[in-house]
Task: structure prediction
Amino acid sequence: MSAIAVTIAGSDSSGGAGIQADLKTFSALGVYGASVITALTAQNTQGVRAIHDVPPEFVTAQIDAVFSDLDVDAVKIGMLSRAATIAAVAEGIELHRMKNVVLDPVMVATSGDRLLAPDAIDALRRLLIPRARVITPNLPEAAALLDVPIATNESGMMAQAQRLLELGAAAVLIKGGHGSGAESVDLLADKSGVVRLAAARVETRNTHGTGCTLSSAIAAELAKDQSLSDAVRAAKTYITRAIMAADKLAIGKGHGPVHHFHQWW
Result:
């Protein structure tokens, strides 16, 4: 039986983030990928030019079509720009009893463009965080979810992870890619404690889609029946190597994509 993962996210017309990055990641890690598109974006490596939201009822139709047919092992949730879309996805999680849900609370693109309406943040907190196996905010996203300043050190990250657990998250991976220093440190926290995951910080401007790629890599590993800690470790290794190989691609004039198929070409 093939492992199957589904991405519920927005489309990136330049191919570096969103469902395009997710499907590339699933494929690179040996998992069959399906998708539910929540929004169309007109974007490239330099920024987001326009967003066209998919009507919530059509998001529901896609979810029903996929989950009524495919035996899905894991789900990655990315860009959900409106509260109504968040509600539709939450209903789908309950109806289809989705398992291994990885929630990437996408709020701002690498270019700095906002991807989540401010009034949708509360819906994200109430409806999706408690339904996820793990949430994967970066430092600005964690701060926005809690309405606090961005953490500047590991003790601050740890404190914010604890507060996110109190919102109902089963586990939290706070990503330190927006931090500074020689290491990029992520913290995986759940009720049993905190695991520190560190990798050498890679100097490159080509970081478009890193968050999407990491969260979909976690989902891919969970789909293959890995434990959460092993899935996160494997995903961290994969995204680090994809970033290290990113400069070989030379795509676009702005923040280029990571190299999803660095192991192959």
In short: The longest strand covers residues 32-44. The chain has a mean pLDDT of 92. The two ends are 27 Å apart (CA to CA). The first helix runs from residue 18 to 28.
